[in-house]
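Fill-in record for Glucose/arabinose dehydrogenase, beta-propeller fold.
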Amino acid sequence: MTVKQKVIIVAGLVVFALAGMLGFMSSKNNMPDDENTAALNYQTYCAGCHGEKLEKFTAKKWMDEPDNASIIQSIKTGLEAEGMPAFAQTFTDAEIEELAAYVRKGIPADRSLLKPALRDGDVTKSEVQDFITETVVTGLDVPWGLAFLPGGDLLISERAGTLHRFSNGKLSPPIEGLPPIRAKGQGGLLDVCLHPDYHENGWIYIAYSALYTESGKSLSNTAIMRARLEGNRLTDQQVLFRGTPYTDRSHHFGCKLAFDGKGHLFFGIGDRGQHFDFPQELDNANGKIHRINDDGSIPADNPFANVSGALPSIYSYGHRNPQGTSIHPQTGELWVSEHGPRGGDELNLAEPGKNYGWPVISYGINYNGTILTELTEKEGMEQPVYYWTPSIAPCGMTFLTGGRYKNWENNLFIGSLRFEYLERVVMNGKSVTHTEKLLEEIGRVRNVVVSPDGLIYVATETPGKIVRLIPVEKK
């Protein structure tokens, strides 16, 4: 990509941010110029991580401090361990001070005012399928994984490091027997799924950021464990995979789980937000899609199983932070959605041994507005099937089957953390032909799954709840 093309992308992002601010600006006609600038800077540079309405600013120490010194310092120098870049070269000191003041001023005492919610029982008329939204569970702390047990009970993992069983309208106490977890930043207890032959073997698979302590320092990387559930306790725990290297970073862990029906378990691990060479090198777990057998062993036909120096679990590489993993119900293909930087979120058809380019090629730019790479394509690196600019922050993904929603069958559903909606993706073979936004402003969508009886369940983290969509025949 040329510099001119990059400038066009940056300009497009700024235009998008300006468009998003029009309603805000029109209602703030008397806002001083410095506040207008701060508001625009927030929407352009900050909202992707911290929310359009500042909804992710919770329980921050600087909120109780008498001045803005701490938040100013965070904006200026960044928080490297949490994935926040430094903006000292992006903004002047005056602009940083104005931005800090804008953030503090914009957080209301009643945060519920920032979260307009769909009302249970109302019929939503989408393009081709009407439905009713019904709340199933509330009061959750960033729900991540959802897995239905035989009989209809629902296992729910919370990123804070707790696992619950939802049964007969009640949430169980935290299930005991989890491994040591480093619940910090984007890490914690992640996805949960059942073995395809759960009725026979009882295996539950759990993804988490494993805690490792070295010289008194807490480190972590993504790990996969399986266990059985007896009463309210996990038993027969077996750690099947530990990602390396361990790091003190608290972001880009991946990790969604998917079985392919052939005894293989797929999952992705992000680049961990450091050492950009990780995704392009085969001697580490980061920035990769992995494939293991259900017992943790390595499939003999893995593309790098016999390559000297390569991690044998690697299935594909060059990924940034994949948080959607799903097997196509008709073709058996592995599809992956992943976070780009600022712009360039991707939907990829993951195939064995292929390189998906991160960070050599990308349709995004750095969070602080600087150019990440001049390249959007390169020989030997795969192009995304589809990409989003601006970023929607895709998380959770599933193909719909079961016949309950006649006009959505085999469509792909992807959660948006950034814009707080569920995206319906219509595909024709390996091409995306149409998208539709559903459940707008429902909250940051962390996961979407299909229940055994064919209903769509959606988990949101702000607020922490689970809803399901009840199909209604169009009249």
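KEY FINDING: The chain has two domains: 3-113, 115-472.
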